[in-house]
């Protein structure tokens, strides 16, 4: 039967007549009845006052993200897959609390893998393998294969006959599992810091992001299943460390790519490098007394009791090859190449050059020429090169104590004139100030290499100078000046450690102060950073 013809000329208006017994409400008088409100009794009602009924959630809702990802072809991050999967809130069963706690811990490791696909990503699998070794879970949770390093074979078996028989009979050997259960906080601190470095886990940004996430899943699994209730308080406290690690570990490669920053680079362009010389060391000769901290001054004189200053260059050697102006050197033909090593920039400390994953040495970034900033670029015409010069040059690791964002309105007072103090005031109003405190003995395995050093290119007073208070690298705080753009991009966190060559911005001898001292920071307390070496998380432990 043919479809009826449609009169395409039929349209409104005119509207058809209203049917009998029907009243049409004008739109202006229409009242919606579907709005849900919470009544005085705390129960949700619709617009007519009828209590609403909560609908049961669809069983398919928890897999909504997963199905959406499958439909669009976009793969979810592995931790979201775990959250949306059945294992996130799974309970593995009741543990026999009368059994040995280490046995229960081993069982929990096996159960964890049943509910969490640690093979979901290769880097997640590698972290879990290393963690098993570190805490003595051995191969119970996952087959390790033959890829582990000899120095990583730290399962419970490693603490059997050889070590137990080498000491007195009454020595008590504590397994890695017992150490973890005794002090989960400290163990996780070590795993997420120094162990990650030594095990080669910190060279991959994916692993820096994944390690805290994996630890959170595992610790929450232990708590939820009450596998080892004796350690529950420690497990809960360790979650705070994990939260800190989740913020700081992914920030470490960002910091290493960002520092030294534009202001520090401009200072190097202006005054030249301070890295040509060796550093002050304690005497290595047998029978010599340890170097005393009664150093007087550096520069033209070599006065250092028990130590030496190597290859101090004269004024001509210290000058940069570029022509200086009153605001810094010309940026023409200035080039730089950057590279990264570990949790830092262009270096590291002794015996770490081959600590790379899979035994492969890193390939340096392709050299990329770029124009380096000058002081004029950042500050405009400035008298800084005339009122100040590089002073003490220190290599050390320091802990970030505080960060002050520049406030031009607040710090502008006292900036009149071209004297040293006025210049410092202007710096404070334009640059962020990062206060750094000494962080000593952070690497017990390499105490000499990691100890603070004063480089021979230094000029100025050290501890014990009769004419000035002097700089004490073991006690004194320094204030690093950083341009705001670098600070914003760096993701620096208070508490983290930075190892670098720090250069003091010292007043030129005899320079006119030209005003009051700079905003509570005494002369010589402003520094810049020439060579960035290493960044450590605030919870670093060995």
From TrEMBL:
Q: Name one Pfam family in it.
A: Arb1
Protein name as annotated: Uncharacterized protein
Region annotated Disordered sits at: 148-167, 280-371
Q: Where is the composition biased (Acidic residues)?
A: 152-164
| GO terms under cellular component | ARC complex
Bias (Polar residues) occurs at 323-337
| Residue ranges with Basic and acidic residues bias | 360-371
**InterPro entries per UniProt:** Arb1
One GO BP on record is: regulatory ncRNA-mediated gene silencing
């Amino acid at each position: 039967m043919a479809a009826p013809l449609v009169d395409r000329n039929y349209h409104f208006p005119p509207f058809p007549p209203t049917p009998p017994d029907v009243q049409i409400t004008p739109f202006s008088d229409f009242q919606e009845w579907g709005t849900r409100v919470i009544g005085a009794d705390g129960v949700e009602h619709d617009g007519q006052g009828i209590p609403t009924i909560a609908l049961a959630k669809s069983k398919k809702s928890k897999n909504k993200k997963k199905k959406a990802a499958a439909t669009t072809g976009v793969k979810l991050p592995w931790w979201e897959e775990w959250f949306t999967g059945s294992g996130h809130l799974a309970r593995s069963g009741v543990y026999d609390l009368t059994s040995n706690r280490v046995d229960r811990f081993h069982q929990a490791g096996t159960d964890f893998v049943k509910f969490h696909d640690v093979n979901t990503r290769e880097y997640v699998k590698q972290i879990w393998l290393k963690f098993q070794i570190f805490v003595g879970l051995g191969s119970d949770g996952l087959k390790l294969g033959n890829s582990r390093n000899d120095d990583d074979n730290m399962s419970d078996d490693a603490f059997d006959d050889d070590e137990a028989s080498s000491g007195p009979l009454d020595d008590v050997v504590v397994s890695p599992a017992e150490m973890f259960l005794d002090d989960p906080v400290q163990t996780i601190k070590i795993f997420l810091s120094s162990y990650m470095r030594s095990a080669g886990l910190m060279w991959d940004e994916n692993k820096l992001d994944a390690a805290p996430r994996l630890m959170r899943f595992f610790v929450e699994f232990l708590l939820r299943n009450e596998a080892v209730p004796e350690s529950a308080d420690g497990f809960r406290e360790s979650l705070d460390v994990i939260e800190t690690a989740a913020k700081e570990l992914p920030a470490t490669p960002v910091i290493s790519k960002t520092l030294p920053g534009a202001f520090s680079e401009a200072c190097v362009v202006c005054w030249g490098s301070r890295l040509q010389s060796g550093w002050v060391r304690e005497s290595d000769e047998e029978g010599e007394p340890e170097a005393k901290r009664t150093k007087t001054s550096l520069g033209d004189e070599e006065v250092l009791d028990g130590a030496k200053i190597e290859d101090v260059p004269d004024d001509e050697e210290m000058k940069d090859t570029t022509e200086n102006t009153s605001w810094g050197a010309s940026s023409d033909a200035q080039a730089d190449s950057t590279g990264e090593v570990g949790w830092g920039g262009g270096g590291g400390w002794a015996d770490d050059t081959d600590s790379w994953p899979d035994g492969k040495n890193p390939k340096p970034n392709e050299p990329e020429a770029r124009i380096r900033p000058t002081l004029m670029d950042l500050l405009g015409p400035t008298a800084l090169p005339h009122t100040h010069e590089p002073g003490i040059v220190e290599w050390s690791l320091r802990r970030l104590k505080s960060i002050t964002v520049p406030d031009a309105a607040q710090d502008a007072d006292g900036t009149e004139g071209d004297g040293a103090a006025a210049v410092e005031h202007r710096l404070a109003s334009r640059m962020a100030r990062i206060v750094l405190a000494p962080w000593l003995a952070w690497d017990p395995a390499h105490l000499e290499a990691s100890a603070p050093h004063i480089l021979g290119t230094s000029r100025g007073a050290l501890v014990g100078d009769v004419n000035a208070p002097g700089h004490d690298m073991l006690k004194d705080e320094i204030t690093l000046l950083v341009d705001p753009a670098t600070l914003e991009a760096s993701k620096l966190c208070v508490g983290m450690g930075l190892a670098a060559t720090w250069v003091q911005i010292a007043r030129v001898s005899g320079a006119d102060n030209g005003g009051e001292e700079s905003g509570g920071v005494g002369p010589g307390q402003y520094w810049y950073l020439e060579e960035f070496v290493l960044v450590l998380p605030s919870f670093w432990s060995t």
